[in-house]
Amino acid sequence: MNTAPEVIIAVHSPDELVARAVEEHGWWDADHETHLIPIEAIGVQGGGPSEQADATQLLELHDAGVIGFGEAIDMPIDRIDGTVQGELRADALTWYLNRDPSSDLTWDDEVSFYGADGPLAIETHDGRLVILDGCHWYVAAKLRCDETIRVQVLRRPAV
Question: Are the C-beta atoms of 143 and 17 separated by less than 8 Å?
């Protein structure tokens, strides 16, 4: 005879998770006419000053022609340690959650602000990978439990 109390675990859909994050942590951004959500409310690590500094340095090296984006690779989701971005647009995140994961369609007309072919990660000074551009794409993939995401990585030049 089982005398353990009944335990019910509610698993929310990714859309429900976004709605709950908006309700509990979000705020209205009149400039963008959408709700913004702190990325940590979705369970993803947002970047701090260290990641911002790494991104700036790597982008300067890229703009100077010292390094390139590298070939797009299928990166295991669990290899990525978060994003440089600290907040997400709720409307864009919901759009990425509901699009076909194999699609190359993007929320904006521009695939990448920096000219990459899709999501762009950087390798930080301590060897971690964080998403610089394509944060909504990445977070949606993570929430859907995708195993990989196709990214290009901006790495420091070999010494």
Answer: yes
